[in-house]
Amino acid sequence: MVKGLYLMDRFILALVAVFLTMPIASATTSNLQLCFNSAGNLTAMGMAVDNGINCFRTDIGINSQYGSQYISATSGMGAQWLGILDYATVNGLNWTLSDWNASVSAAISQYPEIHAWEIWNEPDYFRSAYQDWNATHYYYMMRSASTIIKSKYPNDTVVCFGGAAIHAITGANHTVDSEYQFYKQAWDDGASQYCDAISIHAYGDGGQYNFSTLGYDSNGLTLAGEWGYALNLYENLTHKPIWVTEIGYEAGNLTAQDIQQPKFMEQSLNLLSSYPFVKRIYWFQLANYPTYPWGLIEMPGMQLNPAWYIYINFSQSGVPAGTKAITSNTSTSAKSTTTTIEQQPRPSQSLWDRIVQFFSSLLRHL
What residues contact residue 294 under an 8 Å CB cut-off, 6+ apart? Predict the structure, then answer.
């Protein structure tokens, strides 16, 4: 009897061990599109397009010859743009809602290549004239911009919220909950009918890059916990597709920071891809400059940071982030860079394979 109970205990412990150690199916990128904040370098953008990433995001200025040529040239390479209608679009310190409306009309006329528009950038953080950190004013801006855009291009995509932060912002008295209240007010005012998607921004505030560190925020959540909490807030509020229009981590100067950037990227891509309502991710940013070191391609030498390989790999193949499965031919020519997949995603296991794996593991634990 005692021996029988002992064997039963061993059997139960073995079952627990097997279930704890069996691999969990990883998310794929089948419904997730990876993009870049552009950082204004045509050669770097050509490298991204050659490697399968053709969607970019930028501020939209009016009557900018450089901007028009830049958008036109990259669109000719196959680039698709998300244009941000913000402080670069409406000039002046004391602009009104009428000025805003006129600027939106001018922008969609000047940039016929663009068919996705984001309404402001971080409206609860960057204060400007009529917008004035006022949620109801921001609602009026979304309403009028969407109406103007849709009247000319009914199928254009209007992206609202301008990058609601899903992380606390140190020194700005911003928490996830206080940020959410601003956008909830705008939504309650009636924004739903004017928005096709919702924009959020995801960073590791204060140099945080390890998603499993405890006590990250005032609620004791990990960074992953805080992001998950906030994503669900916005999904439950809007029931709209979520576009992560900014996400990033400083690359540093090829020191220890370069270990942190790919680590942050691995964790964030795997986490965000597990939410089916997250449809796009725009990494901030593509090109990496010494005075603005957030990118994946070092300027001016066009050296590829380690995180570049993770991002391209994840976009092309659906291989879990962190699997080193690509090599790149890195010429500075905008049209000569290619990426080759050396390891394809492992196909999903059949039910029989999983049964065999289960009992094999069980025997090893007995």
Answer: 248, 249, 250, 251, 284, 285, 288
Euclidean distance between CA atoms 90 and 68, whole angstroms: 16
Q: Decide if 226 is inside a domain.
A: yes
User: For residue 210, what are the domain limits?
Assistant: 27-365
CATH number, domain with residue 259: 3.20.20.80
213: in domain = yes
Tokens describing residue 99: 């000025």
The angle at the Cα of 32, spanning 213 to 54, to the nearest 5 degrees, equals 115
15 inside domain: no
- Domain count across the chain: 1
pTM to 2 decimals?
Answer: 0.79
Residue 97 lies in a domain: yes
366 residues of the chain, pLDDT tens digit each: 544 544 444 444 444 333 333 333 333 445 899 999 987 889 999 999 999 999 999 999 998 776 777 898 899 899 999 999 999 999 878 999 999 999 999 999 999 999 999 999 999 888 899 998 899 999 999 999 999 999 999 999 999 999 999 987 655 566 888 899 999 999 999 999 999 999 999 987 656 677 776 545 555 678 888 899 999 999 999 999 999 999 998 886 555 556 788 888 999 999 999 999 999 999 999 998 888 889 999 998 999 999 999 999 999 986 644 544 333 333 333 333 333 222 223 233 334 334 434 444 444 344
Strands 303-304 and 297-298: antiparallel
